[in-house]
Write a structure and sequence with these properties.
Elements (H helix, E strand, L loop, with lengths): L16 E9 L7 E10 L2 E6 L9 E4 L4 E2 L3 E6 L15 H15 L2 H17 L2 E6 L6 H11 L2 E4 L2 E2 L14 H18 L4 E3 L2 E2 L7 H14 L3 E5 L3 H10 L5 H7 L7 E5 L5 H8 L3 E5 L1 H6 L7 H6 L4 E3 L12 H11 L1
Parallel strand pairs: 1-4, 1-5, 6-7, 7-8, 8-10, 9-11, 12-13, 13-14, 14-15
Antiparallel strand pairs: 1-2, 2-3
Helix pairs in contact: 2-3, 3-4, 4-5
Length: 343
């Protein structure tokens, strides 16, 4: 496909299908399990689940005995714009990884490469059972990346990645705060419109070291005005938080976010490895959540997040593969297994 910015999202394929005899894990509030159940899909949507179902005329039937059927997996933090960077940023810790490899690679994207990076990453997600994502986005080529996600059929949250400052940040990625916020609002609206609501807008300030206080305060204002969530990286590595403290008069990311109004919004942070216990009780009372990325945390030498403690404190914790250059895979099952083994 030569056009990286195609038109409106296609409608569901309309294929009708009956799955017979599967182990159905509904994951409903009651935890209902059908040991040998049927599932009927009509016009691209699940319409019935239960015992032996009588298929409408002409519906294709698939023998699913010996298979488990469950809802699609949700990944709360991914970088589909980095899919084509796999293997290009090895043997580095976070800040060198960003400054020496990832940011220059992101600055080299054009609309076509961003679109196909999204398509390739989306395909990998779908092959592993992920059907919903929260995408951190790109800067200048955010719209083309989101077009690729729209055309993939994935659902979730997506938006423009926001950066306006930072040591080692390429000039192409450092966008004036006012312009970046205006583009983020336009990109979010476009994503929701083109996807028919499958993609919802999210505001993505990259992290505290690449976002000025003015940009972060602007994100908080825009999030409050539009009711959009905020998705950022925070407390991933000790070196990162030490650098934040040097820039902010001793504040860590949580204290900075609180001062700038972000904790008054629906704030979702990726990593949170070094989230201090003194913050937990207060954050549990906010609309605050953490996305755990265990493979990425290990590959970049970030540490092991205290997931059990965060959950016991009442802080919601999701999971995500992060990006292929800091994971090598976009497989949610690998992240689930590793997360369980590390706690």
């Amino acid at each position: 496909m030569s056009d990286p910015t195609p038109g409106p999202a296609p409608e569901p394929s309309g294929g009708d299908l009956l799955l017979r005899g599967a182990l159905l894990l509904t994951l409903d509030p009651q935890g209902t399990v059908h040991e040998s159940g049927d599932l009927l899909v009509e016009r691209g949507r699940i319409t019935r689940v239960g015992g032996s179902l009588e298929p409408p005329p002409g519906v294709e039937t698939l023998d699913a005995r010996g298979c488990a059927v469950l809802p699609g997996l949700v990944q709360g933090h991914v970088h589909l714009g980095q899919t084509i960077f796999r293997g290009l940023a090895e043997e580095r810790r976070l800040l060198a990884w960003l400054r020496e490899r990832i940011w220059p690679l992101e600055a080299a994207h054009d609309a076509e490469s961003a679109y196909w990076s999204a398509q390739l990453g989306a395909l990998e997600c779908l092959l592993g059972g992920t059907t919903t994502i929260q995408e951190i986005g790109l800067g200048p080529e955010a719209a083309a990346l989101i077009d690729g996600i729209v055309d993939s059929g994935l659902r979730g949250f997506a938006g423009k990645c926001l950066m306006d400052t930072g040591d080692g940040l390429p000039a192409r990625l450092a966008e004036p705060a006012e312009r970046a916020l205006a583009e983020a609002e336009a990109v979010g609206e476009r994503a929701a419109r083109q996807s028919g609501g499958r993609l919802r807008p999210v505001l993505n300030p990259r992290f505290a070291l690449s976002c000025s206080p003015e940009l972060l305060a602007g994100v908080a204002e825009l999030a409050g005005r539009r009711g959009w969530p905020v998705h950022t990286h925070a407390l991933e590595q000790r070196d990162e938080t030490a650098a934040v403290r040097r820039l902010t008069g001793g504040r860590d990311e949580i204290e900075l976010f609180d001062d700038l109004g972000l904790l008054a919004r629906d704030l979702r942070i990726a990593h949170g490895v070094w989230l201090e216990r003194r913050h937990w009780a207060g954050l549990a009372r906010r609309r605050f959540s953490v996305v755990h990325c265990p493979s990425s945390n290990l590959k970049l030498g970030s540490g092991i997040a205290r997931v059990a403690g965060l959950r016991a404190a009442g802080i919601p914790v999701g999971i995500g593969a992060d990006g292929p250059p800091c994971n090598n895979r976009l497989d949610a099952w690998t992240e689930i297994r590793l997360a369980a083994q590390l706690q």
